[in-house]
Amino acid sequence: MNETIGVIQNRRSVRAFQDRSIDRDIVDLIIKSAMRAPTAGNMMLYSIIEIEDQTIKEKLAKSCDNQPFIAKAPLALLFLADYQRWFDFFIASDVESYCEAEGKDLRFPGEGDLLLACCDALIAAQTAVIAAESLGIGSCYIGDIMENYEYHKGLLGLPQYAFPIILLCLGYPKSTSPAKELTPRFPQEYIHFKNTYTRFDKTALDKMFESRDRKHYFGNATNIGQDYYARKFSADFTIEMTRSVKEAIQTWIAHNQ
User: Fold this and answer.
1) H or E, element range at 165
2) At 140, is the secondary structure helix, strand, or coil?
3) Is the pLDDT assigned to residue 177 strictly greater than 70?
4) Alpha-carbon gap, residue 78 to 152, rounded angstroms
5) Three-state SS for 54?
6) How far apart are CA 76 and CA 61, in angstroms?
7) CA separation for the pair 84, 164 (Å, rounded)
8) Structural domain boundaries of the chain?
9) Which tens digit of pLDDT belongs to each residue from 190-205?
10) What is the largest CA-CA distance in the chain?
């Protein structure tokens, strides 16, 4: 198997790290690799904050849905969807005079700009993950950084046009033995379509979830669908994430209202 494909196919999330720091040259290599990721219009609509302060790590471990391993990660990289740098550059370049000469209103970043910046940041983050994996360094994505937007904005000094889309924890895996079994993914036919979207009936959906079913369900759930609904879709952390993202979007588009 091609070495790169092997890295991708065998990668899994790591939440238990060795008490071992990552050399500075390796950290810089991971970040430089992330910065070679594809980016919209070569604008690099993201920023990376390396969280070195242990106190901040411990606060993030609590605010990101109480996950203690975050505080123990040797390396924590926060990927921001970032239009602040570009908009500051526009203002510094006196685009206001340009707009006036063109008879146009000054445009502020909107929802589309936010989504594009999120794409840039996530592509860079995944590139960092693969680079780290190839160097024997495990990683885990923390989507919970999107929760508690107001708190994280203050803690990390985030300006209006910088949204924390993902926190990445990295370190050498505590267990060096090969995983017995990779976490299952859905069969390809349920994910990969040609030309148009495909929807599935109950029979097909039940077959899709066969590998994920289990004997015991959350609370009063009686099947795997109710279990996922309770544990994921309607869980308190998901409701908070939705509220938080809505607040972040309102902050982002404040000048457009």
Assistant:
1) strand 162-171
2) strand
3) no
4) 11
5) helix
6) 11
7) 13
8) 3-183
9) 999 999 999 999 999 9
10) 68
- The tokens describing 4, both together, are 């790169």
Is 38 in contact with 195 (CB distance < 8 Å)? no
Is residue 77 within 8 Å of residue 126, measured between CB atoms? no
Name the amino acid, one letter, at 182: L
Lookup: tokens for 164: 């924390």
Burial class of residue 29 (count of CB atoms within 10 Å of its CB; 0-12, 13-18, 19+) = middle
The CATH H-level (homologous superfamily) assignment of domain 3-183 is: NADH Oxidase (3.40.109.10)
**Position of tokens 């924390």?**
164
Number of H helices, E strands in the chain: 11, 4
What does the pLDDT look like over 84-140, one tens digit per residue?
A: 999 999 999 999 999 999 999 999 999 999 999 999 999 999 999 999 999 999 999
Contact 111, 69 (CB under 8 A): no
What backbone torsions phi and psi does residue 128 show, to the nearest 5 degrees? -65, -40
**φ/ψ (deg, to 5) at 227:** -65, -50
Cα–Cα nearest to 161, from 113, 91, 89, 120: 113
